[in-house]
Predict the structure.
Amino acid sequence: MGTSFGRGGATTFQQDLQNADCIVIQGSNMAECHPVGFQWVMEAKARGATVIHVDPRFTRTSALADIHVPLRAGTDIAFLGGIVNYVLQHDKYFRDYVVEYTNAPTIITDEFRDTEDLDGVFSGLDPDNRKYDFHTWQYEGMEAIQAASGERDQEYEDRSEEEKGEEERSGTGQGGDPGSSASSAGRGHSHGSGGPDIGTGIPETDPTLEHPRCVFQIVKRHYSRYTPEMVEEVCGVPRDLFLRVCRELTENSGRDRTSAFVYAVGWTQHSVGVQYIRTAAVLQLLLGNIGRPGGGILALRGHASIQGSTDIPTLYNLLPGYIPMPHAHTNEDLDAFVSAEGTDKGYWADMRAYTVSLLKAWWGGAATEENDYCFDYLPRLTGDHSHYEFVMAQMDGMCKGYFLAGENPAVGSANGKMQRLGMANLDWLVVRDFSLIESATFWKDGPEIETGELRTEDIGTEVFFFPAAAHTEKNGSFTNTQRMLQWHHMAVEPEGAARSDLWFYFHLGRLIRRKLAGSTDAMDRPVLDLTWDYPTEGGIEEPSADAVLAEINGWDADGQPLSSYEQLNGDGSTACGCWIYCGVYTDGVNQAARRKPAREQNWVANEWGWAWPANRRILYNRASADPDGKPWSDRKALVWWDEEKALWQGHDIPDFASSKSPHYRPPVGARGAEALAGVDPFVMQADGKGWLFVPAGLTDGPLPTHYEPQDSPFRNLLYTQQRNPVRQVFSRKENRYHPHAGEPGWDVFPYVITTYRLTEHHTAGGMTRWLPYLSELQPEFFCEVSPELASERGLEHLGWATIVTARSAVEARVLVTERMTPLRVQGRTVHQIGLPYHWGTSGYSVGDAANELSSFVLDPNVHIQEVKAFSGDIRPGRRPRGPALPALVEEYQRRAGITAQTGMEV
Amino acid sequence: MSPELLDVAFLETQTPAAASGYGEAPPRMGFFTDTSVCIGCKACEVACKEWNHVPEDGLVFTGMSYDNTGGLGADSWRHVAFVEQRKPLGFQESGVEHDGVGETTELRWLMASDVCKHCTHAACLDVCPTGSLFRTEFGTVVVQEDICNGCGYCIPACPYGVIDQRKGDGRAWKCTLCYDRISVGMEPACAKACPTDSIQFGELEELRRRADRRLEQLHAAGIADARLYGRDPDDGVGGDGAFFLLLDEPEVYGLPPDPVVTTRDLPSMYRHVAAAAAVLLAGAVASFVRRRP
């Protein structure tokens, strides 16, 4: 979403779903996984909206939807691309919106070659290094374009060389090391809130949308083969049902009506996951549904504060507020960093102010202009240090220590065996959780102990377990799925040794600083110079979360709280721990703790909690008004231009400069926010437009394209190119892939497997499987199969089944249900197997972990695993015990002819 | 025997609370469970257990769709039933296809949260010899755990099979409609936790009006088999304090189709007993009379 709109967060909020005329829930099982938010879907339905659920399984969400569309897991781009094609072929797009607010009229360089020309790949593919050079995807007439979100390093090389005359980059590893390529440095999340540099010049456009190289025509050609017939063959969705969805969606979009999309990790967790979401972005832009009430794309996050954990990141490649983590380029200083990562136009042009204010918040008085505000104190990236990369580094003995906080990779991450083998090869492991989760006890009761692949006495990892406090036992904020911060108050002090994360890291820092005190080693300065002086409260010396929030909000030179990131300066006079959160402590008041009841304010409820950016609830809401600033329709009014007051007004806070007239046009040479016109609603994008076509910022192409999952029992019908050519694959003996359809041995794994959550449990189970009240509601690991599959494989309801992939085999109780439906795909019947992934060997409710079956294969933009669609086999009965288990897996590998090369082709 | 049972005609013009002797009683409170918006999240089951300290009920994988609770009992005061059916839900498109005939199979997944009905004529209360079961001022029926002696009479008396003895404890347990919460103006835990307002708590009269409106809506939306259950004050239990909107026959959800208060016939039985006793007595007297010379 960052590359399409400029910010990585949900464009709308859950309560606004009530205003939708049609809601498409796809890649999400909202009723089960977000039951509280689902009330707004029910509200919309009560008001007459059509609710469509597109999902391989008929779930509790489908039960309440008007239309359930079962599709083959892993084919959503084909399905959504089919709708894009329908919209374009039948002229159902919102033309005024598309021409004014998207990059549809922009002309792309004549070097660009589409998948239409190259049979499934784009121009710029470097097959040897499995990466794209995106220079041919640029706007015509521009020198360079930089994405708001995503991959930027390639461009860094260009610009740094140009500006600084440097040719060498060092410290990024050696040739052949996957860590050395810029594209692996994990910039996919960067600029979740930032704007692109559009280079110099003015992009050429054709407002008639007729130019053969304009984005509109390229998109139209790109999706022309995504016909209803193709959708039927690829997805297994009958034509009539598909066309009904197209009609519902288009009839409920336009000037007077809006439709919303809702997704979750059902879209994310694929080897083309980012492009799934991009397809929805293309569609919603064409239909004119972004920035308007009842429209938008709602990204549902899985954890209570997962949005917060990217805003103030626990990610290796980001600093707070989506400022990218500096790369270990030689001699890189603040100026070089800002010039390479910042932009000329849009709000990202002020990146220096955001970065310097961050450095001032962290290092206070030690950060001065002379020392570049301690910019050198920041760690540097040397490559891809994402989860799966460092697990392999653990296995290889490179990574020696590991903190796990609220994370149970032995159950929740792909390929559980590799997760455990990594942890078994550490010097130390710190686990902070409520209970002794599998990741804390794998050394004595993990599956490898049972099979004899590991012996407890051989494992040298020293495991430290620290009990964690629950949210009711600490103060703090959650940033929820709609970018809204809500404060929670400590109800009771945590019991025994349980402590909050804030307590743990604060006191850990104090201990380290005490040990380093007096050190003259320059290496220790970054730790010793930190402003690490939060006041503590109570008998347990809990650091004041309020003080941390005040620092995140920031203050001016006099120590007065700031109220907006527009006040931030790059001269060291302001400090701010996260620029997008600036304003959450306006007037010294914790705005996140506001709880004004709904009945005392309008439906947008801006006085409940606080949302970034600047407490706006619907992003890009300038687009809710026409180019002249009038609402597209009364029914869908949100913000509008008040000519008399010369101000933007409305129900929500305008996501636009409040006094910028719709008729404003930037003077030549303008920069920053000044360079955006009065008709540029996507204020974080350098051209102010929503991007149908992404000229830079994505590692795997400017337009979403259907590729089959890594392990798929079907050929890619759309192109010769079977899989995402730049997906990340890893050939290791614990991580074997399946042959794809057509290769010998593919039919050893003929079924499609998808993994998911149930309402009754939470992710890897650390918060639920130890609780009797939840365990009794879903007491055992089960697989969901159709009666047809049960009969084909002799599976008995309530009996046991063994599910096998090239990685491992697990056993599950069998739940035969007509909610699982066989599909007709490419002329044959395919069965899908549903596996909830909550269980593991420990806890009150135990069972095999579905993630024993999945593999390391990653989306190249955000390095997320593909666990929502892979192939496998199922057979009746329990799995073998002990060494017989790996023997069974090896037998399957032999039968399928699997080698180290299987599935590794580009 | 409670006074309400003796004078049914009196009760028809009185709330159960008033009939039970409350002078100034608040309005009768109850639940309306609209199963058409239930999403089967089971938050009601968990919230109930958390608030009322109801123990875990055993880890049993039943295979009955997503229902691993099975039914109401001493250790489950809310129970969400899951029913997978080959029937259409109004105009819903299920998308699934079985039987290999190339046509969509009708399929719907009904979910419904069951609870104690808090009957107008509550047999459990009638038969309770200790006074442990009593009628609250809100018209609800509550067991007092410190009085219950575990005699178990109430268990066969309940026409819905709701109230139950706890193993190892012996006492009878069931939903209290969160008497402690509603006494201080809060809504019951299950209703509070319900994200879609499938469980609605409020004044029974208002709930009945709401239910009638909702039923009309659903009928208009083509869901012809929607019906209210326990709403009718003229049914065999005098109407339920906790009533339901169902999408199929009650039996589908495991509910009795025509529940009747099991103590309904007690007065006439007593009258017959009295008559029989009188006849016997008369006979006995007569026999003595005859012996007189």
